[in-house]
Queue: 2 jobs
Job 1
Amino acid sequence: MAKNNKQVYDSRLAKSVFNIKHQRTFCMVKPDGVMRGLVGEILRRIEKSGLRIVAMKMLVPNQEIIKKHYPASDEAWVKRLGDKGISALEGLNLDVVETYGTDDRRELGDMVVKSLIEYMQSGPCVAMVVEGVQAIDMVRKLAGSTIPSQAEMGTIRGDFSVDTPAVANVEKRAIHNIFHASENAAEAENEIKLWFAGEKIHDYSLAGDEVMYNKHY
Ligand code: ADP
Ligand code: MG
């Protein structure tokens, strides 16, 4: 009996570990990243980390897909965009109302959503699905934080952009931060379904997986 229970536990555990190793996330080189010739550099960083690219395509997204991608009907998410803009003014000696025309988080968030739709359609994007150990958090780490001027050096956003909401919003545009990555499991699932609906997600092993994930000593 005890042995059977142990077997059940082992197989559940094995399944969980399999899922951790095969976690999938969605990410995208945004139009500014493509136009600056950074696709290869970004793919290199993803591949070098040991993650696998299991689907990829280049497209100019239509308005419909962008509106589904960014949850503009989610008030908390829209307000968070506004918050990011307001908090980015700290230390810049700029007045919130004078800079943005409002200090209302929702109003500012709505303005950002509008500019995001224009930004994402300003040229081709390279969309992909990336798989591997804790891929969602790993790709977010590679991306760095939303506001490039605050993103750590060594991250995609920190290394290749110095943009900030104070400048972006006065110029009535979204922050140009080169790269998108799903923030959590729910976003990853929705975004993969949205951008790769009915498309093949590939399955293969990297040569390095053998050394990384098998005990060979
Ligand atoms: P992330 O892309 O890091 O997940 P969000 O989901 O909060 O960040 O925002 C989506 C995108 O909207 C950002 O990547 C950025 O291009 C843009 N953005 C966010 N906040 C602002 C802001 N205050 N002003 C202008 N653009 C913004
Ligand atoms: Mg986000």
Job 2
Amino acid sequence: MSDKLWGGRFTKNESQSALEFNASIDFDKRLYRQDIAGSRAHAAMLARCGIISQEDADAIDKGLEGILHDIEDGKIEFTIDNEDIHMNIESILTERIGQPGKRLHTARSRNDQVAVDFRMWTREAVEKTMEDLKRLMHSIYNRAEAGQDVIMPGYTHLQRAQPVTFAFYMMAYFEMFKRDYSRFSDCLTRMNENPLGAGAMSGTGYATDREYLTKKLGFNRTCANAMDAVSDRDYALEFLSSASICAMHLSRFCEELILWSSAEFSFIEIDDAYSTGSSIMPQKKNPDMAELIRGKTGRVYGDMMTLFTIMKGLPLAYNKDMQEDKPPVFDAYDTLSACINIFADMLDTLTVKSDNMEKAASKGFTNATDAADYLVSKGVPFRECHAIIGEIVLYCISHDKSIEELSLDQLQDFAPEFDEDVYQRIDIRSCVKAKKSEGSTSFESVKNMLSDSKTYLDSLNN
Ligand code: ARG
């Protein structure tokens, strides 16, 4: 007979190579807290339902509590002989308390055990990611609040387009992270269902109380179908998808910081504490953190694709392939959390070079749309205005001038409707101020955005 917990129907032990290949303890040991919480709830439920005695349940509970402390004090060595965290803990328990330990696995399978452990782990990961995002949104908000008067160019095709405020730019990212937050919150609501009690896949013949387990482990609902409960990992995929979208937003933001910190833009300076030098070029100050976040985004996408690919084509119910679900989820959580926090640190400490931003906004004809709108206000149809200003821009380029540097006479050569008040109207500050639509870059509108966002952030803290 094999000496495994499941060894009864075997005539000999598995080979050393199979043992090593099969084991997941090296990574699933991260589930120890959830595994112990799940087992304590399960033992209490078994006693309540009269399936095991109260004395056995008490012994199990005390035993598991001791194991929890010993793991946290680094006193326990796990072994691949016991394959995974579930069997490691169960073996240690039985070693310590004897017979009652052998009753713990009544009315339970490792399939619902791993399902509940991993779901609880992922639930916590989502909650912690939401905390990270809250911190990031605060950092962005603070930057925006301080940058309401700073004018910079907004771009399309990375060509200067129209003047905006730095606050407006920052609040665009705020909106993205706000949606990321709500994506995590949505998937949290959906995943908060308890698979424990599903057994191997068809339920159990014991009169168990799944509702009790559900409440005890803090779930909102009990999974409705035992086969689905042990089979799906869509909650982990939702986490990975939301994490990928969030990492993509961070990566775009990083790309901006990388560009803005170059001599070509010179819009910001990243603090020395979040920059590195070159081993050969003494003058270099590189935005490594931002580049790494951009790079690590690929890793998070990879984690998502890993799990999608593992799950694709698996027949119901549990298959061992699913043991491979954990490393990508652990990795994506660790990676994203590190990225969000270092990004927030970097954002909190960087210097905004507002003069350079404003200078850049004044060049590149960012007021051309407003010049066209000026002519519209004088009764010229927009399409004609567009053509007239286009010709003026062409003229300015060849004479190395900006629109406001032309005299009124020169402007009137292009369109008699021009008047003295044009200069005031196409000043970049006026261009910003003149925006009237909801959600625009006008100072007024950004003030409203900030105040709505403040209310939103406060609501997250309650
Ligand atoms: N280590 C396994 C995993 O992570 C636990 C579940 C094993 N179940 C089974 N029927 N072999 O998926």
